[in-house]
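Budget justification note: compute hours in this period were largely spent on complex prediction jobs such as the one shown. Inputs:
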Amino acid sequence: MRRRDFLKTMGVASSAAVIPFLKFLPAEAAGRDDTLVVVSGNGPNSMDIQRKGTNRPSYQIAVNLYDRLVGYSTKTLANGTLMYDYSKLEPEAAESWVVSPDGMTITFKMRKGATFWDGAPITAYDVKWSFDRAVSLGGFPTVQMKAGSLEKPEQFEALDADTFVIKLTRPDKMTLPDLGVPVPIIFNSELAKKHATADDPWATEYLHRTPAGSGAFMLERWDPGQQVVYKRFEGWKNGELPGISRVIIREIPSASTRRALLEKGDADVSLEMPPKDFAELNASGKYTITGVPIENSMISIGLNLNFEPFANKLVRQAIAYSVPYDQIFKQAAFERGIPLWGGKSLTPATIEWPQPFPYNTDYDKAKALLTEAGYEQGFEVPLSFNLGLAQWSEPMCLLLQESLEKVGIKATIEKIPGANWRTAALVEKKLPMHIKDFGGWLNYPDYYSFWVYQKDRLFNSMNYSNPEVEKITDATLKMEVSDPQYEPNIKKLLSIFFEDVPLIPVYQPYLDVAMQKNITGYQYYAHRQLDCRSFNKASV
Amino acid sequence: MKRNDKLRIIFGRLTQAIPSIIGIIIVTFILTRALPGDPAVYFAGPAATEKSIQEIRTSLGLDKSMLEQFWIYASNLASGDLGVSVSTGLSVKEELIRRLPASLELTFLALLFSIGVALPLGIAAATRPNSWVDQLCRIVVTAGVSLPVFFTGLFMVYLFYYILGIAPAPLGRLDIIYLSPPSVTGFYTIDALLDGDIETFGAALSQMILPAITLGIFTLAPLARMTRGAMLQVLSSDFIRTARASGLKRSTVLYTYAFRNALLPILTTLGMVFSFMLGSNVLVEKVFAWPGIGSFAIEALIVSDYAAVQGFVLAMAILYVLLNLTIDIIYTLVDPRVGLES
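Corresponding output:
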């Protein structure tokens, strides 16, 4: 596309502002009031979140370019940061919804007058097609839909253009929140169907490159591996029109370069920098650094029960007493997180999650426990981390290695490259001692347990199994939080986590974002990508 | 040598390359499969289950036998289909067409810079051994090899962009306000000129200067050293003494007789340096956000993206064959004694 043509397509409303734009120097162009320049380490590899192999940065496409039936409302944290609140849903493409008294049917009314980018109305038939697609494609979208008990096309029905019905096989507290995650997006089904073929009934090839949605932003450009550019969809009806009219997201692989771009004012928002950079930028006071604790996420140390000494609970507790928590938190995490150690008692007082485990650094206790377990001579153990996360996990491992030596355990550090990590840690589950960073999208301890503590789960890299954990998790997973059985059950579950410690939590990490002072409205989402709809930029 | 002979020889060379390319195809295929790490697990995404991993494996065709997979790969290759890179979501051919010119453009400019510095420096050092020029040459060579590329790159960014503010923001091939010129060659500078767009040409060129110098500093070391060494050797030979004794002009002795004879080893080094630069400038690409071939290959390797790795190696192999051929031909032009048959 030529620059002149490109400018023509930018719309009449903004054309007055466009003329001086070209004459501006690059640095000033970034400072334009209605353009947001974001620099990020990784970019999307697909426009379709439901495609196989779609990477995490692509989740932002689903949020910014597509609408869901419902969205999450916003809550303000103690430090003034905005964060999504999945416990309170807000209408998006659906105007309202009703849950039947038995909890088995949910009926949605579609919003009147809302359209896709091409002007076609968003109907219940589009939702039906899109949900059928999500549960039929297999892989990630299907698994995520299943987390909300949405499993097969027969569960979805479009009564007429305005009414969409979900029939459940069992009441599930996750169903409605699960409709607000990035996966169940609504495609322009008529447009998509035109590009479907017999081999490709869900138009995956077309939607992979060409978004067909109704979201607050439209795709202006996608240069894979380089940049994505959004422009505002002026006809968006499913929420408040965004304050920013263009968003340019550039892929800058080097974190140091990203920091330089932010400090020079060429970028408005910088993502994915090491904790050290965020800590320093924060101390400088010249930028807005927003750190939100990543929900349901813990940086922790996994102990594999297949490794002989770790099969003994006392040894696991001994390790939990030999972790140099404070040092790791200060020197590896640069305090960009919330401590998860030093809890008061083995019986949890609340069902808050994540919460501090009742351990602290106490070498004498650790030695006593090791002696009791018959390991007073210590043992050797490989300690592994994912090379892709070396920025904080390498110093963490070094500190851990040093302290383990004090109780007679000799740890040898093994660096494992990213792709092998999943195979070694999650599939083969063969790493005796390793650093974990799992986080679940929906913030319930039972949901975390479902992914991490239950037997044979993918993220149960500890090979942990406990019949009671199985029982409680299965029972609480579908239970409403208000159910009187919920709290006692969860407390029991947490006390088992505390006592058995197959997983030693160290801290709950922050998701940090660095912004220029004139940028407001940043909102944290569980998918850890930018929601550009809420941003505002003040003139400098 | 007649023109026809030359063409015949070039053709002969190309046919000779076919077995090696077939060999490379087979070896890369086997090597990628031998990589640790399971692409199906990786691409199944964060919330994978055993079933969804299996589905991915089937859709990637990894559940078939090795022989069957190779047959599919080879027959696709025969029809010009390099497969789809799972990690970037695009066809490998598309990726190569987009990224190879980016790397080539940068490499050419870097090479130009390093030839421009290394040759005069090497010649000057050789004509005045142990003078200050020779010492300078030594310092440059030592610094060039010993400074890691990412350090030079970051230092350049820090100095020229962050402190002095004279270099453009290291945002890749073009700054945010420019759009890529209509693609003809894939070289932004050339495409911009073809389009008659001087402004974009300038923007594209200015984005290249820092990364090209960074790359160039690293590669001028072997070039300067080779130039100096070859020149020293030639300058001490009999025919130069004779030429001097015959009272030929200093410049004639130096350039017509000495330099031309010293050019062969320099050319060889140049070929090596060029191919090395193309594939291994990953760190420069990272620091300057350059969408080149090196970082693509590394990413693909890390996630065991088979099609992408195979496509990259194949493209590089073909490039090497062409490069060697070009250098051989230049040899014959420089030194008629070198026959292509040998």
